[in-house]
Design brief:
This protein is about 20% helix and about 20% strand. The chain is an alpha/beta fold. Among the domains are: about 1-55, no CATH class; about 55-190, Galactose-binding domain-like (Jelly Rolls), CATH 2.60.120.260. The strands form 6 sheets. The protein has a 7-stranded parallel sheet. Strands 4-7-12-9-10 form a 5-stranded antiparallel sheet, with no helix packed on it. The chain has a 4-stranded antiparallel sheet with strand order 3-13-8-11. Keywords: Glycosidase, Hydrolase.
Length: about 600
């Protein structure tokens, strides 16, 4: 049976000897005429009539406080619904139903929970994702609390959604659509246990790592859980922070994008290597990614121009097919492209510049060609090929290797990854939450033996919240419209951020090249399990204070899905008309980051 063309659901008709009435669940009807269609399925039954009556929400049971010793679950159907509906047609839920119809941007569900005391609580969501991988946005007591990843499922499952800081008394957890097209059954809480000490040894995966690379890793590890290093992607954003905040970030983010041979063929040039050498000479930490334009098979039309060639939608390059034919032309082009970038990295090695190297980023998103069809196997194989080619063939020993996907199915292995990272783009502008859910996911992925970081951020986490949530992100990197647009990070917030004693800027890290530090973080970052031991960060200067974020209206990187199954790109490239390489570089950089 389907209602108004929606996906059909099966209704069970038990055998009988006469006409009987059975319930088929709850369905959303629109004002005016509605169409109910029955199709054969098993067939051989008789339909007499259908009865429709207004939905009467079940009476909510008394609000039970979260247990001090176990799990406490709150059913979604007892929450406050706005644009959403309670349904029962898909089996496997608990309670009396589940909440769905998250299909418009403003649709929401608010569930009250009761805490006996203020503190951190583990947060779990039971949901069903029959329409593919999705995201939902969450908020706590009206304050954005980050996005929750809801991977595709074939039934109702329970996932960890991070931690939340609940106040004593009633707290409201709200879900809003984000990507939409999922079913929420319930939420569960338990008192959070003290965080385990980190077990990061600091040993790099490359046994021949250079002294400079080892020293950089040792320095990052010495600050892990103690400070949050600031970073800016591209020299222009770096200069903007200097001019508008009066601080210099600790990290410069750069991109090998315009060294890609299929871009050079169209006239691009780059000074990224020269910039890296200059920043390193000033003791700024150098961080590189590579928006790898596909080696061939660029669509190159007005709609899909060549300079968007790192996007899945702008190239037909089939990575899986290229990897399957190691003697083929396209596999050879992969190797040739890698060799081109290796030559640039060798220039940095010759200048004794250690590089935090993050290739094949955001693979699990599927919007870049190395994650086509959201198939992890080709991306992992390509990463391992690159690691071997760079490390063993080109003898690149100045690299610290960063992997940038969260799901375990995408992980290429401990033996080729030094740092785990996540790219955070909240769907709500001004959401400065701690991103604790993804932090905990990465801690679990690396078994707490890998340093974890925010390799890209839109809205930067509030350093005060990072300490409360014990989210020990090593550093962040942001830039472009995310830093200077005034929408995602207000100037007041940026001043608060850069003046925090928990945030380390360039003037805090200078001299790191001469620093001798331990290469183990075991128990180093934690001395107490209580939030009181990790107090809110104090200001570096007494004149700077944080004010509330202003109202935000612009859309963010991960937008609502327009269909149940379509995957959504993190960002869309903008129209470009200039053919000069300098114009291309300027316009592309933040359309794709």
């Amino acid at each position: 049976m389907s209602v108004n063309g929606a996906a059909a659901v099966q209704i069970y008709f038990p055998a009988g000897t006469s006409f009987v009435t059975t319930s088929s669940g709850y369905y959303a009807l629109t004002a005016g005429a509605n169409t109910v269609v029955f199709t054969g399925s098993w067939g051989w039954y008789l339909l007499d009539k259908i009865d429709v009556s207004p939905y009467v929400p079940p009476s909510a049971p008394p609000l039970v406080p979260i247990s001090a010793t176990g799990n406490t679950t709150y059913e979604a159907e007892y929450g406050t619904l706005s644009g959403t509906t309670v349904e029962t047609s898909i089996t496997g839920f608990t309670g009396t139903g589940y909440v769905t119809s998250f299909d418009s941007a403003s649709d929401s569900l608010t569930i009250p929970v009761l805490a006996n005391s203020t503190g951190l609580y583990d947060f779990f969501v039971t949901y069903n994702g029959p329409y593919g991988d999705k995201y939902t946005s969450s908020s706590l007591n009206g304050v954005p609390n980050g996005e929750i990843s809801l991977p595709a499922t074939t039934g109702f499952v329970t996932i960890a959604a991070g931690q939340v800081l609940l106040a004593s008394g009633v707290n409201n957890i709200t879900f809003t659509t984000s990507w939409g097209w999922y079913l929420i059954d319930s939420i569960t809480f338990r008192v959070a246990a003290p965080p385990a000490p980190h077990q990061v040894t600091g040993a790099l995966t490359n046994p021949n790592a250079s002294a400079a690379a080892k020293k950089l890793m040792a320095y990052l590890l010495s600050q892990y859980g103690k400070h949050f290093l600031s970073g800016q992607q591209d020299p222009a954003s770096y200069a903007w922070v200097q001019a508008n905040i009066g601080e210099s970030p600790a990290i410069i983010g750069l991109d090998m994008i315009d060294y890609s041979p299929s871009r050079v063929a169209f006239g691009t040039t780059s000074r990224a290597v020269e910039d890296a050498i200059a920043f390193d000479a000033n003791e700024t930490i150098v961080n590189f990614c590579w928006h790898w334009n596909a080696p061939t098979d660029l669509i190159n039309t007005d709609a899909e121009p060549w300079w968007s060639g790192f996007y899945t939608h702008a190239t037909t390059f089939d990575l899986a097919a290229a990897l399957a034919d190691k003697n083929g032309t396209k596999y050879g082009l992969l190797i040739s492209d890698m060799d081109t970038i290796a030559q640039k990295l060798l220039l940095l090695q010759a200048a004794n510049v250690p590089v935090v190297w993050r290739p094949l980023h955001e693979a699990e998103g599927g919007w870049f060609w190395w994650g086509r069809d959201q198939n992890p196997a080709p991306a992992k194989e390509l990463y391992r090929i690159m690691y071997d080619r760079f490390t063993n063939y080109h003898k690149l020993n100045n690299l610290i290797w960063v992997w940038n996907s969260v799901a375990a199915s995408w992980y290429p292995g401990d033996d080729v990854v030094d740092i785990l990272s996540y790219d955070s783009y909240p769907s709500t502008s001004g959401d400065h939450g701690a991103v604790s859910g993804r932090y905990n996911d990465l801690i679990a992925l690396g078994q707490n033996k890998k340093l974890v970081t925010l390799s890209e951020v839109g809205e930067i986490p509030d350093p005060d919240l990072l300490q409360v949530y014990h989210a020990d992100w090593s550093y962040f990197v942001t830039g472009g419209e995310w830093i200077n647009g005034g929408v995602h990070n207000s100037l007041d917030f940026l001043k608060h951020l850069y003046s925090s004693s928990y945030v380390y800027n360039w003037d805090d890290i200078k001299g790191w090249k001469g620093t001798t530090t331990s290469t183990s973080s075991t128990s180093a970052s934690r001395t107490s399990s209580t939030s009181a031991s990790r107090t809110s960060s104090t200001s570096k200067t007494s004149s700077t204070s944080k004010s509330s974020s202003t109202s935000k209206t612009s859309s963010t990187s991960k937008t609502s899905s327009t269909s149940k199954t379509s995957s959504t790109s993190k960002s869309s490239s903008t129209s470009k008309t200039s053919s000069s390489s300098s114009a291309v570089q300027t316009q592309v950089l933040w359309g794709q980051w």
